[in-house]
Amino acid sequence: MPLLTVDRLTKNFGGLAAVSNVSIQLEENELVGLIGPNGAGKTTLFNLLTGVYEPSEGSVTFNENGKETLLNKMKPYAIADLGISRTFQNIRLFKDLTVLDNVLIGFNSKNKQGIFSSVLRLPSFYRQEAELKERSIELLKIFDMENELETLARNLPYGQQRRLEIIRALATQPKLLFLDEPAAGMNPQETAELTELIRKIHQEFGITIVLIEHDMSLVMDVCERLYVLEYGQLIAQGTPAEIKENKRVIQAYLGGEI
Amino acid sequence: MRKNLKYNLSWLLLAVAVYLGIFVLKSVGLLSGIVEDTLSLIGINVILAVGLNLIIGFSGQFSLGHAGFMAIGAYATAIFTQIQSTYTGFLLSILIGVGITIVVALVVGIPTLRLKGDYLAIATLGIAEIIRILIVNGKDDLSQGIFATGGAAGVFGIVDYANWEVIYIFMVLTTIIIANFIHSSTGRTVLSIREDEIAAEAMGVNSTKVKVLAFVLGAATASIAGSLHASYIQTIVPGDFGFMKSVDILIIVVFGGIGSLTGSFVAAILLGILNHVLRNVQAISDYRMIVYALALIIIMIFKPGGLLGKKELSMKKLFQRIGKGGKENASVDR
Ligand SMILES: Nc1ncnc2c1ncn2[C@@H]1O[C@H](COP(=O)(O)OP(=O)(O)OP(=O)(O)O)[C@@H](O)[C@H]1O
Ligand SMILES: [Mg+2]
């Protein structure tokens, strides 16, 4: 049983089928790429899988240790609680909060504190708070950001903002992580660092990662398997080598006749 | 753990020092009755502003009916202390007001806070007006029924259990509760919703639940302020809790800084002093709302984030600065 099973998923916006009859499967600890021209429906697919939109048709099933959950009508926060996290194409950090607070909020999902122990400042509150802080700092350390704890997210350089968004997503302790164009707007140096970062997360955290990316060298470099979308439809899937040779894909990207 | 104790103790010390300061000034006869009135009014306004700031400044929701919740507390105390004219009765009346307020806030908050957008503003505006009209149509006195709000004439002769000390203690308590709430894990999720609701939900924050929680907590403290107001002033009329009162509180929040509890304190104190100084100037009390509006416009032009923006007085930062030998102000970005 795959970790995530997407079956004939469709999303209509008025007359436009932004995602149309898409079926995909994600296994545990896979690194999968999702590519396609602008407007192909990649972000919409992520939004469907994380509960931002409700599917028009089809189903999304999450399977954790044999326990199946239908995600179709679930709210984003409930899906996040199941262990599915994401980043956004247009960075969505908590801009006026510090780097540390951004990560702490990620941790909140799996580590809820009681309101009464917080308001009454019981010893358990301080203990839990100290523990969460320690774990946040540890996580930031892995990605070399432990020196920016008190920096406001809005004041970070662009590349670090992207990085922080990924760290915040990891703080929710996901089994499945969706990254929407993490390399967008990065220079080659930053892209190279990001490539390493994604590899590192894949290896050290043992989670499944789905990556939307226009930077083909990055995708071909790190992904084990690719899905290709065009006009909302899945037009190809396979290993990077197979996709490179796929006529249908070449046509979609070059826009020419076969 | 040690450190936390140190910060908490210094806050306690500050609270006690201010209390003793006022107490000594009063004992040696330096505080006239009018000054005491001003101090009490400031205390009540701090409670109101801190609660509203939680809703507006921290959770990012817009409420225009804070005075409505204040009215619930005020009338709960006005009526219940007639039935039970003891100090315990007074404290019970505060609890009753808070209880009713929580129910009303849940009824208003749950349906509107599910939606994205400023529906809460409209709903709170409406509920405050409904509460006021209900009160205007209440019974004249207890012989006619429990809902004895005295109609448009109001209630007078309410027992004065709330003196400046009681108000001060409640002010400190409600501030501690709200500040502790904000600086907790749930409090951080409240801030995350203000920053970006979609991202917050994607991080597992149940935004409706958290928004409702902040709203209910803010409303409950307004009810406490209402109870204190009724018992201190001893006379209340429905008009005390109209739309203009909600605007008054809003002005304190905006003036001090949307998202700064310290700012709400500073603004409540400054505006309280201003009111005190100008209390005999007839022209100003006639045109108070115009003066307020002008002050607000000037603030918006020169300091759009309010006096303090989002800055807070923090003992931790204060100690760190003293430790470094610096003598600068301790207000730092939170
Ligand atoms: N909320 C919406 N309402 C209406 N149309 C939408 C909405 N969201 C997306 N679309 C449309 O659906 C199509 C797919 O958009 P989507 O953002 O998923 O593409 P994408 O593959 O992520 O593109 P890009 O590479 O540019 O990010 C586009 O035509 C877009 O205009
Ligand atoms: Mg996109």
Task: Label this structure with key terms.
heterodimer; A: 258 residues; Rossmann fold; six-stranded mixed β-sheet; four-stranded antiparallel β-sheet; 10 helices; B: 334 residues; mainly alpha; two-stranded antiparallel ribbon; 71% helix; binds adenosine-5'-triphosphate
How would you describe this protein?
The complex is a heterodimer of chains A (258) and B (334). Chain A has 258 residues and is of the alpha/beta class. Chain A has a domain at 4-83 and 174-255: Rossmann fold (3-Layer(aba) Sandwich). Helix content of chain A is 40%, strand content 24%. Chain A contains 10 helices and 10 strands. The radius of gyration of chain A is 19 Å and the shape is globular. Chain B has a two-stranded antiparallel ribbon with strand order 1-2. In chain B, helix 7 (185-195) packs across helix 9 (207-233). Chain B is globular, with a radius of gyration of 20 Å. The model of chain B is unreliable at 326-334 (pLDDT under 50). Classes of the chains: A alpha/beta (258), B mainly alpha (334). The A-B interface holds A 50-52, 75-78, 80-81, 85-86, 88, 92-97, 101, 104-106, 108-113, 115, 118-121, 123, 125-126, 128-130, 132, 152, 168-169, 171-172 and B 1, 4, 8, 177, 180-181, 184-189, 191-192, 195-196, 198-207, 213, 310, 333. The complex binds adenosine-5'-triphosphate and magnesium ion.
